[in-house]
Amino acid sequence: MVDLTQIMDNEVFMAFASYATIILSKMMLMSATTAFYRMTRKVFANPEDCVTFGKGENAKKYLRTDDRVERVRRAHLNDLENIVPFLGIGLLYSLSGPDLSTAILHFRLFVGARIYHTISYLTPLPQPNRGLSFFIGYGVTLSMAYRLLKNKLYL
Amino acid sequence: MVDLTQIMDNEVFMAFASYATIILSKMMLMSATTAFYRMTRKVFANPEDCVTFGKGENAKKYLRTDDRVERVRRAHLNDLENIVPFLGIGLLYSLSGPDLSTAILHFRLFVGARIYHTISYLTPLPQPNRGLSFFIGYGVTLSMAYRLLKNKLYL
Amino acid sequence: MVDLTQIMDNEVFMAFASYATIILSKMMLMSATTAFYRMTRKVFANPEDCVTFGKGENAKKYLRTDDRVERVRRAHLNDLENIVPFLGIGLLYSLSGPDLSTAILHFRLFVGARIYHTISYLTPLPQPNRGLSFFIGYGVTLSMAYRLLKNKLYL
């Protein structure tokens, strides 16, 4: 049996694993945040979720949308749309033998930008806070994609 | 050329590959389910999708939303939000050299909980069926993230 | 330290890395397309995004939905729903030692079909253009899942 743990001895890969796990855990917090606002504001999407608050017509009034809940859901979807490319491209980039300090700079910028994006979205902070943090994360992922395709294109 | 097939000789990695493939195939079924309900209930989101049912104003009446279709779409999005972290964290966790039986317990719990989540959502079963299955999957992913960061943190 | 760059010497893996990076970059273009339509059509989801167009009640009129923007967002979500399984299953399939030409055929068909899907969705082209391109991508992913589970099932 191969000792796969030696892959984790690679410093770039270990750094990628740490930053990817942190940003995915942050993304998972968005589910908990949505659930928190749904409970405290009594705003539900499914009839079976609000039976504890009343029966029949009385329960139906909780089937509604709420600005706060929709804001968290948009932030969550934006996370998905940006973290999925980071995971895919970042994993392949990590395996392509990049310079350690360049790689860590990419990972740190992305994770920092996405955490700031969430803060900007949920507070909400005035623009261009959210816009800038979005574009930093976007640019980091494109920079990794460019380096990967420049060195390792095989079609 | 490296014989990459030896990675697949690692039992934890093979188990992860099997469970990940199964749960991703299940997630893909949600697309087919949405398409099925859209066709049988004649509920469409795009004008070009309902031209076979009528022309002009007559076709526009099929551009609507439907409780059943929206329910499947919410289940699908919830899958995406939870399966993406499982894939990313689970892959890195599998490479970090965990105990085989612990790893398989994590994978089985996650896949079982997500399948039960879909059944609870689409039937729908009364709460807390869906809520509990969500939290089991959520907890399994966080448990893998915790073990990964505890052993291999590199920032 | 392990020389991980040797993984990239594997031709199937290099091909997967190239096609995955291309299709993820294409998916990222959807964010830019949404932002482009939101700016040019002045259609926003958040109050803080439209303050440059007016204050108070005057700004609120830009908080609306628009057919064109919603179409891009549906195409983006459909990308996420289909590219995530391709990434997960495709990565594991690439590591399972498939025949090079078979693997490249799978990757090319998927990437071609998803690019055509986006063109069909955004133009929009009449059906079944979009439907067919969806099913080709869907079938390619299921074909990789089938080969993976047939050879390497470990539960």
TrEMBL record, chains A, B, C:
GO terms for cellular component: endoplasmic reticulum membrane; mitochondrial outer membrane. This is Microsomal glutathione S-transferase 1. Coiled coil: none annotated. Conjugation of reduced glutathione to a wide number of exogenous and endogenous hydrophobic electrophiles. The chain crosses the membrane at residues 12-37, 83-111, 131-149. It comes from Macaca mulatta (Rhesus macaque). Its EC number is 2.5.1.18. It is a multi-pass membrane protein. Signal peptide: none annotated. SUPFAM superfamilies: MAPEG domain-like (SSF161084). It is found in: Endoplasmic reticulum membrane; Mitochondrion outer membrane. It comes from the Eukaryota. It catalyses: RX + glutathione = an S-substituted glutathione + a halide anion + H(+). Pfam families: MAPEG. Homotrimer; The trimer binds only one molecule of glutathione. Keywords: Acetylation, Endoplasmic reticulum, Membrane, Mitochondrion, Mitochondrion outer membrane, Transferase, Transmembrane, Transmembrane helix. GO terms for molecular function: glutathione peroxidase activity; glutathione transferase activity.
